[in-house]
Amino acid sequence: MFTLIEFFLIFFALVSWCIYSIFVLFNLRKTLTVFLYCGLFFHFAWIVYRTVLVTHAPFSNAYESILFFSFLYFLKISFSKYWTQKRKAILILPAEILLIIGLLLPETMKIPNFLVPALQSFWMFIHVPSFFIGYTSLTYLFVLCLLEFFLKKDFSLIIKSELKQSFFFITLGIITGGFWADQCWASFWNWDPKEIWALVTFILLTAAFHCESKKIKYIFIYLSFFAMLFTYFGVMFLLSGLHSYK
Amino acid sequence: MANNFIGKILNLILILNLIILAVFSIFLSFIPSFLVQNIISSPFYLIFWAILCILIIIYPFISNIDSEKTLKFSRIHIPFLFFAISIVFVFLTSKSITVNIEEGNFISLSDVYNKMNLKLKKDSIIKLYSFEAIKYKKNNKSIKSFKSTLLIDNEKKIIEVNKPLKIQNVRIFQKSWKLGLNSLVYNFKDTTYDLLSTKQLQVDDNTYFGFYPIEIVDKKINYKWEIKNKENEIIHSGMFLNNDDIAKSELTKYNFAIVKEDYKFISIFEITYKPFNFIFAFVAVLFIFMLLFEFWLRDFIQKVRVRK
User: Fold this and answer.
1) Is this prediction's pTM over 0.90?
2) How close is the nearest chain B Cα to the Cα of A244, in Å?
3) Beta-sheet pairing, B170-188 with B256-273
4) Is B308 exposed, middle or buried (0-12, 13-18, 19+ CB in 10 A)?
5) Of A97, A111, A204, the residue nearest B21 (C-alpha)
């Protein structure tokens, strides 16, 4: 019953956004903003519903965090005044892919789980969202670099601004994670795979910041994005460590 | 951005250095943790972080940048440099040990201080009064909290995960726990055995019986049993769940029964001494604030000034 309600909320959000993307991209209608906001409404309703259901913040396992991540990304694109409807329809594609991944995850991963003792801390509300805001900016940055490459247009101003955002929030995530680890595991840094890959993302973003050549800067942004993907999915499913809460 | 040749060379060195650090770090995530500790403390890895710090120090002096750019450079890079130095400083001055205390047993703080080579002001006795693995009421399976109640100089103090306890200059963390058996007596084919002395029992010429505690469930232990042949291959195995009658009946054909079950909890604590933690915390917050200032606050303040 609970799963069915969740499924429909996410499904309606996905359908709304897909209608928006298809209609705008294929010039069937010039604007369909109502579907964009409808999608946001259903996705937000899922967040509220899931929070009530699990009685903790809705980013404690893979399923919840993927959907939370896609929500932040939709939010970022939906309220951006920089883009035309058509560009928005292209830019929301990564979040639609994330939603589909979330829906396709096995049922066992969607079961509401109780928070393990290590996760019961107020740092969870700072550390995890910081990373997800950073990841959202980095995903956006990645799509922008690709768009600039294919459309041959200059998005350097917005790329610079997003690079700052992703760098700041990933740094904030690492540092607040250090404070939390000191309280929970008695050490700021434990060389856990997740920590190491967060550090790799930080190093690559630092390199992107300091590159003088635009092309190399974009290569570092692509690399940071792939490092971020590995931090998130790779470490979650392939490597085990302190951050594996099974 | 560097506007002279040396500045461009330094920038190139920086990028190369960052690439090496990234590759090294990726390598660290795929190797066993005991090797990680050896590599990160080796000069071969530390040298690249040192180069990064040296570049930060020398860059404004060597590359021909104006005073405004030097100030902009310093606002982020100097806090980062302090941050890096504080990490090394905290690492060098920190000490930690792992202590196991059985339920009802105690340790003295002076022993802990001696092991850490620290001077103690006043000795205290730390006794583990009780340990509990508290479960969520809703499903009665998932662990909500590990709670150690300590008696420190006859005063009750509680330690949980994420809630360390500070005594004098050290902090005590709930690291883990394990189960210790005082005694476990069981009956097998009408003979009584003690698990602590007979871990594996020879039933006949070809068969061995083994019985192992695996998990504690609500003050009762779940066990795993195995019957092996002479070649040490498991020929039959199963779980003996104390609350599960079906699993119990599986063992009745072997005339099996627990006669006495007496266990104790052992709480595992990490005791740390980090006198300069506050420096690290201060510098980390400063670094974050300076990033925030340089990225957005400075422009915001300027805009407000222009409007006025």
Assistant:
1) no
2) 14
3) antiparallel
4) exposed
5) A204
The amino acid occupying position B61 is F
Which amino acid is located at A108 in the chain?
T
Helix locations, B120-259, DSSP H: 245-252
Phi-psi region of B193 (alpha: psi -120 to 50; beta: other; left: phi over 0): beta
Residue B187, classed as helix, strand or coil, is strand
- Where do the domains of chain A lie? 1-115, 116-246
Place of tokens 């809630």: B163
Q: How far apart are CA B226 and CA B263, in angstroms?
A: 21
Please measure the distance between the N-terminal and C-terminal CA atoms of chain B and give it in whole angstroms: 32
Q: Which residue do the tokens 């330094």 mark?
A: B10
CA distance B99 to A13: 52
* Pairwise CB contact (< 8 Å): B288 & A239: no
For position B220, what pLDDT does the model report? Answer: 62
**β strands within B44-111, DSSP E:** 95-102, 106-108
Beta strand pairing call for B165-167 and B170-188: antiparallel
Q: What Å distances lie between residue A181 and A135, A184, A187, B147, B158, CA to CA? A: 21, 5, 6, 18, 20
- Helices A124-151 and A93-104 pack at an angle, to 10 degrees, of 130
Give per-residue pLDDT as tens, A153-207: 899 999 999 999 999 999 999 999 999 999 999 999 989 999 999 999 999 999 9
Low-confidence stretches of chain B (pLDDT beneath 70): 1-3, 64, 140, 215-221, 241-255
Under DSSP, the state recorded for A115 is P
User: Which chain B positions have a beta carbon within 8 Å of A204's beta carbon?
Assistant: 18, 22
Count the alpha carbons within 13 Å of B135 in the hemisphere toward its beta carbon. 10
**One-letter amino acid of A224:** S
Selection from B59, B78, B77 nearest residue B3 by Cα: B59
This complex has an ipTM of: 0.92
Asked if B145 reaches chain A (Cβ–Cβ under 8 Å), the answer is: yes
> Measured in Å, how far apart are chain A's first and last C-alpha atoms?
24
Best mutation site among A190, A212, A213, A226 for testing chain B: the one with the most B CBs within 10 Å? A212
Q: Which residues of A touch B140 (CB under 8 A)?
A: none
Distance between CA atoms of A227 and B22, rounded to whole angstroms?
Answer: 10
Whether residue B212 contacts residue B186, with contact meaning beta carbons closer than 8 Å, is answered with no
Contact residues for A91 (Cβ-Cβ < 8 A; gap 6+):
A77, A80, A83, A140, A143, A147
